[in-house]
Write a structure and sequence with these properties.
five-stranded antiparallel β-sheet, 2 helices, mainly beta, 5% helix
C-alpha cells in the first residue's frame, strides 16, 4: 500500500506537470508577415537555451494571435496581447491567455466603437485598460466584460503605453502629451500637453516619464528635439525637460512599442533610439551619461521598434533584431550589463518582424501534499522518470522528486537533470 501510494503521488504530480509552463524565460513577440500570417509569440527558455516557436498556436489548436501584434503585458494570472486588427475568426484584436500555460481565456475581435488596438495595462484583478485608435476601453478579466464605448476624450490622439501613480492612470497620447484618467470615476481628468513629438511613456520606480523625439526616422540631427520629461503625478504637469543626445524612437507613423527597458535598481534605460539603427543605447538617469553604441549588433543586423528587454533576475539584456525589410533572417541575442555578448540564436527563417521582448513571470513556489513549515528532517528522497519508474538517484532528463519527511509529510517538485 505504501509503495502504491507513493507512486500514485508521483504520477499525480506528473499529470499536473503535463501542461507546459512558460515561466523561466523570455517571450519573443513578432508581427510576422502581414497579409500572409497571423502574428506569433515564441518562447526562449533559460533552462536549455531553446526556442519554442509559435507557442500560442501550439497551446491553442486552431487559434492564433491577431494581425500585427505589437504589444503584450502580464499580471500574476494573465498575459494580454494587443494586435492592430483581428486575424479572421482565429485571433482577436485583444487576447487574454494564462500567464504560465498560455491557454487562451478570452478573445475580442473588434470593439463596438471601432479602432485598432495599441497597448494595455492591468491595474487590478477587475480592471485592464486597453488603448485603441478610438480611445481607451476598460476590460474585466473576471467576467470578460468590456465597456461598450471608450473613455470620453481619449480618442483625440491615439493612446500608447500606460502607467499608474497616485490613483490615476497616465497614458501616452501620441503626438500630444499624457492623458490623466481618474481611477475612481474612470473619467479623463486632464490632458498634459508635453510636445507634438511625444513618443512614449515609461516608469522608473514611482516616477512617470515621457520621451520626446521629433526625429521620425533614423539618427537625429542637431536641430531635432530629444528629451526625457518627468510627469509630476500630484500637480499633474510636466517637469523641466532633460535634454539627451537621443531619446526613444518616434513611432507616430507606424505604432509599435518604443518605450525603454528599465533597470529599476540602478535607474538605467536600455533602448534602440534609431529606427533601423544597428545599436542599443544606454542612459544612466542618475548620472546623465548617455552611451549611444552600448551594444553594437553583428554586421548586417538592425533594430525595429524597441525589441529590447532587461531581466533584473538574470542580469541579462535581450535583443531581437532583423536584417532589413523583406529579409527572412532574424536574430535573438542576450548580453550582460557590460554589453558583452552571452548568446546568439538565428531564428528559424521566416518573416518574423520583431515587435517586443517580455520577461516571463516567475514560476510559483512548489506546493506539496502537506505544507512544510520550519526546519524538517528529510527521511527519504525518490526520483521518478516519465514512465513512473522509481530510483534513489536521479534519472536523466525530467524527474518528479518526492521528498518524504520524518513527520510523514511529502513534497513533490519537478526538476530537469542533464
Amino acid at each position: 500500500m505504501i509503495k502504491k501510494h507513493i507512486i500514485s503521488l508521483a504520477m499525480a504530480a506528473m499529470a499536473s506537470c503535463a501542461m507546459a509552463e512558460y515561466t523561466d524565460g523570455l517571450w519573443l513577440l513578432n508581427e510576422d508577415w502581414f497579409g500572409h500570417n497571423s502574428s506569433t509569440v515564441n518562447f526562449y527558455s533559460y533552462t536549455d537555451g531553446t526556442i519554442t516557436y509559435r507557442a500560442f498556436q501550439k497551446e491553442n489548436k486552431g487559434l492564433t494571435l491577431g494581425n500585427t501584434t505589437q504589444f503584450c503585458t502580464q499580471d500574476d494570472s494573465n498575459i494580454y496581447f494587443c494586435s492592430k486588427q483581428n486575424y479572421g475568426q482565429t485571433g482577436g484584436r485583444f487576447i487574454v491567455a494564462d500567464a504560465k500555460t498560455l491557454q487562451a481565456k478570452h478573445s475580442i475581435n473588434a470593439f463596438d466603437g471601432g479602432g485598432d488596438t495599441r497597448a494595455c495595462l492591468p491595474v487590478s484583478s477587475t480592471q485592464v485598460f486597453i488603448g485603441t485608435t478610438s480611445g481607451i476601453y476598460v476590460y474585466n478579466p473576471t467576467n470578460g466584460e468590456i465597456t461598450s464605448t471608450p473613455i470620453e476624450g481619449t480618442g483625440v490622439k491615439e493612446p500608447g503605453e500606460m502607467a499608474v501613480a497616485n490613483g490615476r492612470l497616465f497614458v501616452c497620447a501620441q503626438g500630444l502629451g499624457v492623458y490623466v484618467i481618474n481611477l475612481n470615476n474612470l473619467a479623463l481628468e486632464k490632458t498634459i500637453e508635453v510636445s507634438s513629438s511625444t513618443c512614449t511613456l515609461f516608469t522608473v520606480g514611482e516616477q512617470v516619464w515621457v520621451a520626446v523625439n521629433d526625429c521620425s526616422w533614423g539618427t537625429p540631427s542637431s536641430s531635432n528635439t530629444e528629451q526625457f520629461i518627468e510627469i509630476d503625478t500630484l500637480a499633474l504637469e510636466a517637469k523641466t525637460p532633460v535634454d539627451v543626445a537621443m531619446a526613444c524612437q518616434n513611432s507616430s507613423w507606424a505604432w509599435r512599442k518604443t518605450s525603454p527597458s528599465v533597470d529599476e535598481q540602478n535607474k538605467v534605460l536600455y533602448y534602440a533610439p534609431a529606427d533601423g539603427g544597428n545599436f542599443v543605447s544606454k542612459y544612466d538617469m542618475a548620472t546623465g551619461q548617455f552611451t549611444q553604441e552600448f551594444i553594437v549588433l553583428p554586421e548586417g543586423e538592425s533594430m525595429y521598434g524597441n525589441s529590447v528587454a532587461f531581466d533584473a533576475r538574470k542580469g541579462i539584456i535581450a535583443v531581437m533584431c532583423f536584417e532589413g525589410y523583406g529579409n527572412a533572417n532574424f536574430h535573438f541575442h542576450t548580453f550582460n550589463t557590460a554589453g558583452e555578448l552571452l548568446s546568439s540564436i538565428p531564428l528559424e527563417e521566416n518573416y518574423w518582424f520583431p515587435a517586443m521582448v517580455m520577461v516571463a513571470k516567475e514560476s510559483s513556489k512548489p506546493t506539496g501534499i502537506s505544507e512544510v513549515e520550519g526546519e524538517k528532517e528529510v527521511a527519504s528522497v525518490r526520483y521518478y522518470d516519465a514512465a513512473g519508474h522509481c530510483s534513489a538517484t536521479p534519472w536523466a532528463g525530467l524527474n518528479i522528486v518526492l521528498t518524504t519527511y520524518t513527520d510523514g509529510t511529502h513534497i513533490t517538485t519537478k526538476k530537469m537533470i542533464k
